[in-house]
Specification:
142 residues; YhfM-like domain-containing protein; 3 helices; single chain; alpha+beta; Immunoglobulin-like; signal; 7-stranded antiparallel β-sheet; YhfM-like_dom
Length: 142
């Protein structure tokens, strides 16, 4: 009886350790490459690379929790910024997804298009956090 109890506790501890370590590895080797539109045309230049894991995870969290709509949108102008997640060791068959960002006319929210057919307008709080992480600038200061 005592041997079984000790075995159970030991296995539980090992599972906790394995689970904790594996989730850290998954998030470790990511960055975000941001490009900024040049002029009024659909031309972009490399703007910034975000390698801070906490910031990368915050951006992922905002985008994962967003209420995406399946919609093909046709914007009046090209995106103000675009970005994608970069993996140091990409998985085989993993596709890079392009995110494009437009700053709203009131400069209080951002609209995001994911790939070719997903759209969301973020609330003010998430817009501010996302924009500040991606650009290093405050949305309301533009």
């Amino acid at each position: 009886m005592r041997f079984t109890k000790n075995l159970f506790v030991s296995l539980t501890m090992i599972l906790f350790a394995i689970t904790g370590c594996s989730s850290g590895i998954e998030n470790e080797e990511q960055s975000i490459k941001v490009q900024k539109r040049i002029g009024d045309e659909n031309k972009y230049e490399d703007f910034k690379e975000i390698t801070d894991n906490k910031k990368v995870q915050k951006v992922k969290s905002i985008l994962d929790k967003a209420d995406w709509e399946n919609a093909k949108v046709d914007m009046v102008r090209p995106a103000d910024y675009r970005f994608g997640f970069q993996f140091k060791n990409p998985e085989k068959g993993a596709k890079a997804v392009l995110y494009e960002i437009w700053i709203s006319p009131n400069i209080d929210k951002v609209e995001v298009v994911k790939g070719d057919n997903e759209y969301v307008q973020l609330n003010e709080e998430n817009s501010t956090v996302l924009f500040e992480i991606l650009t290093g600038e405050r949305l309301f200061d533009l």
